[in-house]
Specification:
The radius of gyration is 25 Å and the shape is flat. The protein contains 14 helices and 18 strands. Strands 7, 8, 9, 10, 11 and 12 form a 6-stranded mixed sheet that branches. A 5-stranded mixed sheet has the order 14-15-13-18-16. A 3-stranded antiparallel sheet has the order 3-5-4. By secondary structure, it is α+β, with helices and mostly antiparallel strands. A hairpin with a 2-residue loop joins strand 14 and strand 15. Helix content is 33%, strand content 24%.
Length: 420
């Protein structure tokens, strides 16, 4: 049965756009806490053409690389025992250079095989890690590695001692080229999305290489908030000893320290994240989440972005709306209890089912089944005395808000708890 829901005009417009999206299509921009990772099922490996079994070996090596991205270390041996014929999952291959083969697997078939075997799988929506790296060159000068070389030059100039004209005018050593490629390769190998800080005026004013080298993580974490990440990797390196780089990794308020080169650092981050976010087949759930306190388009966009950036959420759909309340249908790679734990944080606060939700009518009706026009109310996006609601949203088959599985309230943005 269709239900008539009293809805602010801003919500009708935004919901129309959201409802039009297909499942899983809420992709994450690079400046939020998670990112959609492509090419999880493609790997480049060594290829010995002269060997009779050269291609079979390459397929096996490529599969091992892909499995490291998809499932936990404990499950990889069972995964290899389950997928005994990698060639059956290969979509295509190409020789990218002499002795190198690029192999692409059928991601859907591979994921289904792992799940059918009862193994955990990490989806493609993954936490984005911001990497702050200070490198000390052979001449003793320290430089921040940023998203572009110009930023590095500006930072080196700012870090130079006052009056040291030679230090300011001298061209910076191109340390970035020694670190960017290995970082990109490690990120691709382990399926962990990373980004470097912009090192624009805002970053330059907030963080110096001395802050990173001196272990002033609170300064770095404060500067990281603008990037909207929960994962921050801080490195202190010497250009001639990359394998001795000292790392501090912060994730959701927790700290880990270790040393090693970039491959080891990214591998350590990947191993920890996959152990936390890889989900078993029996952990999936379809959960109806009611959220109150959405007073306008900005708050709706804030909640939508937040839901879309959660690694254990596959898809989000708007099921119903009224006033400042929205009912979402969430496909989660987690149990209901685990999803509640994940969502309760900086943006949302879990609450009991509000009494007013259970008692409020889900539409204006005189008798059961009879729908009448709602009373116009002020549009929250405009404010008191502004334009009034001129219509309602008709959502086919929508259920009542009192039937939701979980209830949350949107936190005030200026009062949100900071994890980093």
């Amino acid at each position: 049965m269709n239900r008539l829901i009293q809805t602010p005009r801003w919500a009708v417009c935004v919901a129309a756009a959201i409802i039009g999206l297909s499942a899983g299509s809420l992709l994450v921009p690079s400046t939020t806490m998670a990112a959609q990772v492509n090419n999880l099922y493609t790997a480049e490996v060594a290829f010995e053409r002269q060997r009779r079994d050269g291609r079979a070996r390459a397929y096996r090596d490529a599969l091992n690389t892909v499995l490291r991205r998809l499932t936990t270390a404990d499950a990889q041996a069972q995964a290899r025992a389950t997928i005994t014929r990698p060639a059956e999952f290969v979509l295509g291959w190409s020789e990218v250079s002499a002795g190198r083969l690029l192999v692409s697997f059928d991601g859907v078939a591979l994921t289904d095989a792992l799940r059918n075997a009862g193994l955990p799988v990490w989806g493609s929506n993954r936490p984005l890690t911001l990497v702050w790296l200070a490198v000390e060159g052979a001449d003793g000068r320290r430089e921040l590695i940023g998203a572009n070389a110009a930023s590095n030059e500006a930072k080196s100039a700012l870090d130079a001692p006052e009056g040291d004209v030679e230090a300011i005018e001298a061209p910076t050593v191109d340390l970035a080229s020694q670190w960017l490629t290995p970082l990109q390769e490690a990120s691709s190998l382990r399926g962990v999305p990373v980004r470097l800080p912009l090192l624009d005026e805002q970053d330059v004013a907030a963080v110096t290489s001395s802050d990173i080298w001196g272990g002033f993580d609170d300064v770095v974490l404060a500067a990281s908030r603008r990037y909207g990440v929960d994962s921050v990797l801080i490195g202190r390196a010497q250009s001639d000893r990359p394998d001795a780089t000292r790392w501090t990794w912060w994730f959701a308020g927790e700290r880990a320290r270790f040393s090693g080169d970039l491959n080891r650092a990214v591998g350590r981050v990947a191993g920890s994240l996959i152990a936390q976010f890889a989900s078993s087949p029996d952990a999936s759930a379809n959960v109806r989440v009611s959220i109150v306190g959405l007073a306008g388009q900005r708050s709706f966009a804030r909640v939508s972005r937040f839901l879309a950036t959660q690694s254990l959420i596959e898809a989000v759909r708007v099921e119903a709306m009224r006033n400042d309340e929205i009912l979402f249908e969430v496909d989660a790679l987690a149990s209901r209890a685990r999803l509640a734990q994940i969502l309760d944080g900086d943006v949302l606060e879990q609450i009991d089912a509000p009494l007013e939700l259970a008692q409020a009518p889900f539409g204006m009706r005189d008798t059961p089944g009879e729908l009448v026009s709602p009373v116009p109310t002020a549009d929250p996006a405009i404010g008191e005395g502004g334009d009034t609601l001129s219509g309602s949203l008709l959502v086919p088959g929508a259920a009542g808000f009192d039937d939701a599985d979980l209830y949350f309230r949107l936190r005030e943005s200026d009062g949100a708890r900071q994890r980093l």
